[in-house]
């Protein structure tokens, strides 16, 4: 029986031990590949963490710039509103001046029309006076 055990042992050593050696070598190779992969993943995680910090920093900078630009836009809008108020005031002032100028032109027109009417009336009075003089002369001739 000992011989059988010895033969089984030899058979196992001849068949299984080489396979175990191959499996062991493959295991070591897989382990080294896994270690390299884990190192690469750690490097990528470190890189991602660095990128995340840079993105956070950039986000803070952008928020500051946006706040500055918003403040500048608000200031510009305020200045535009003030300019619009000044324009509205100027519009009212110019409208009032135009209205006053129109009134003065209307009064001037009335004066010019009265002068024309006055000249016409003067001519008519001179004509009537001449007619009356002519009538007086005729009456004097008739009375004489």
UniProtKB/TrEMBL annotation:
Alphabetized UniProt keyword annotations: Coiled coil
Coiled coil: 48-93
Protein's recorded name: t-SNARE coiled-coil homology domain-containing protein
Native source organism of the sequence: Candidatus Desantisbacteria bacterium CG23_combo_of_CG06-09_8_20_14_all_40_23
């Amino acid at each position: 029986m000992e011989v059988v055990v010895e033969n089984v042992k030899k058979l196992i050593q001849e068949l299984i031990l080489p396979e175990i050696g191959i499996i062991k070598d493959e295991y070591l190779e897989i382990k080294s590949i896994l270690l390299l992969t884990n190192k690469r993943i750690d490097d990528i995680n470190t890189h991602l963490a660095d990128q995340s910090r840079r993105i956070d920093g950039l986000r803070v900078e952008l928020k500051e710039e946006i706040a500055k630009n918003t403040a500048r836009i608000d200031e510009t809008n305020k200045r535009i509103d003030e300019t619009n108020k000044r324009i509205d005031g100027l519009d009212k002032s110019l409208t009032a001046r135009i209205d006053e100028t129109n009134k003065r032109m209307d009064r001037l027109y009335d004066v010019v029309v009265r002068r024309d009417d006055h000249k016409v009336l003067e001519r008519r009075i001179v004509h009537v006076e001449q007619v009356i003089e002519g009538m007086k002369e005729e009456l004097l001739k008739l009375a004489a």
